[in-house]
């Protein structure tokens, strides 16, 4: 049994994966693929039973070289760099790791909300520069009683809701794939899409990136938020129309925004949000803790072996 790791950025020559593979009696090869063509060439060279991929593109062209490939596991929550339909056509099982960084992303989401609402970054920079002005971040408002609107109500959003309630936020959610009774049971008020927007003092985005959700938070959506709302995205770049968000921030209609993800990472110098006021950016770090890295890598390998045994691990997309 042979596993190919197309790419990873953990910096230790896949030592954890090699150990787990050896314990299972499998062979593991590591490549540094940066493009779909690289993946295609690696698949031809190694002819693996399973592919572990982090960032490289695994599209139809690459899969044409996948002679004997039986399983693909994305080392991450989403599968937007894997052509799932093409894999299914070839009878290749596909899985992801949906549950390795739930606490980290939920914590980071609340940290971003607090940082924007409490003006933390501006106050810290002001104090470091020698000022001692409690109004340096402008007019701040009380969180308790504000509405946190969750666009999507999966694992992470549910944990954000639990944390938000601790700060006295009213929690509302919209997710067409979660029943209203389940949303209520988990401590949020179910609302339709437009109703959620109208109520959200804070809109936090927690949906997967698909062709139907790309650009979901656009100018029309932003215009439906209350004046002075903030927007938070720790899900996927591409969900928020960055041109529209920049315009809403520059107009002053939005109180602020906090993003951990962008459509292009790192952003170019001429990015539409460059220089936008009241914007807090973090570098796609919401998922990160040392514990989360170990969980991610371990669960990815375990899912790989599960697929090869014909089982359905938690993150299966195609079996």
Polypeptide structure, described:
The protein has a 7-stranded parallel beta sheet, sandwiched between helices. Helix 8 (180-185) links the parallel strand 7 and strand 8 (189-190). The mean pLDDT is 96. It contains 12 helices and 13 strands. Helix 5 packs across helix 7 (155-166). The protein has 319 residues and is an alpha/beta fold. Helices cover 36% and strands 15% of the residues.
How is this fold's topology laid out?
Layout: E1 2-5, H1 15-23, E2 27-30, H2 36-46, E3 50-53, H3 60-63, E4 71-74, H4 84-89, E5 93-95, H5 102-117, H6 120-128, E6 147-151, H7 155-166, E7 170-174, H8 180-185, E8 189-190, H9 193-199, E9 202-205, H10 219-224, E10 230-233, H11 242-251, E11 256-259, E12 279-281, H12 290-308, E13 316-318
Helix pairs in contact: 1-12, 5-7
User: What percent of residues adopt helix (DSSP H or I)?
Assistant: 25-40%
* Approximate shape: elongated
Cross-sheet strand order for the largest sheet: 8-7-6-9-10-11-12
Radius of gyration: 21 Å
Beta-strand residue fraction: 15-25%
State the major sheet.
Answer: 7 strands, parallel
Return residue spans where pLDDT drops below 50 for at least 5 consecutive residues. none
The secondary-structure class comes to alpha/beta
What is the count of DSSP helices, taking H or I runs of 4+ residues?
A: 12
């Amino acid at each position: 049994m042979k596993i190919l790791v197309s790419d990873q950025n953990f910096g230790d020559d896949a030592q954890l994966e090699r150990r787990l593979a050896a314990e299972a009696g499998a062979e593991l090869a590591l490549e540094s693929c940066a493009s779909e063509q690289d993946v295609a060439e690696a698949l031809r060279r190694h002819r693996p039973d399973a592919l572990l991929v982090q960032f490289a593109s695994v599209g139809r062209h690459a899969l044409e070289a996948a002679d004997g490939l039986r399983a693909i596991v994305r080392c991450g929550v989403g599968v937007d760099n894997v052509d799932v339909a093409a894999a299914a056509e070839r009878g290749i099982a596909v899985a992801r790791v949906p549950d390795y960084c739930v606490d980290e992303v939920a914590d980071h989401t609340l940290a971003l909300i607090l940082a924007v609402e409490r003006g933390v970054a501006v106050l810290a920079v002001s104090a470091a520069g020698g000022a001692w002005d409690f109004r340096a971040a402008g007019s701040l408002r009380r969180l308790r009683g504000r509405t946190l609107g969750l666009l999507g109500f999966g694992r992470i959003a549910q944990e954000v809701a639990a944390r938000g309630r601790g700060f006295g936020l009213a929690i509302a959610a919209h997710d067409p794939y979660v029943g209203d009774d389940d949303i209520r049971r988990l401590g949020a008020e179910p609302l339709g899409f437009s109703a959620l927007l109208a109520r959200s003092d804070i809109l936090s985005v927690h949906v997967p990136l698909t062709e139907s959700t790309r650009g979901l938070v656009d100018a029309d959506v932003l215009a439906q938020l209350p004046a002075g709302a903030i927007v938070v995205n720790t899900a996927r770049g591409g969900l928020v129309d960055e041109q529209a968000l920049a315009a809403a921030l520059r107009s002053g209609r939005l109180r602020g925004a906090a993003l951990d993800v962008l459509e292009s990472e790192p952003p170019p110098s001429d990015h539409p949000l460059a220089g936008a006021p009241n914007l807090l950016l973090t570098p796609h770090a919401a998922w990160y803790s040392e514990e989360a890295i170990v969980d991610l890598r371990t669960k990815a390998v375990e899912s790989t072996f599960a697929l090869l045994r014909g089982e359905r691990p938690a993150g299966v997309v195609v079996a």
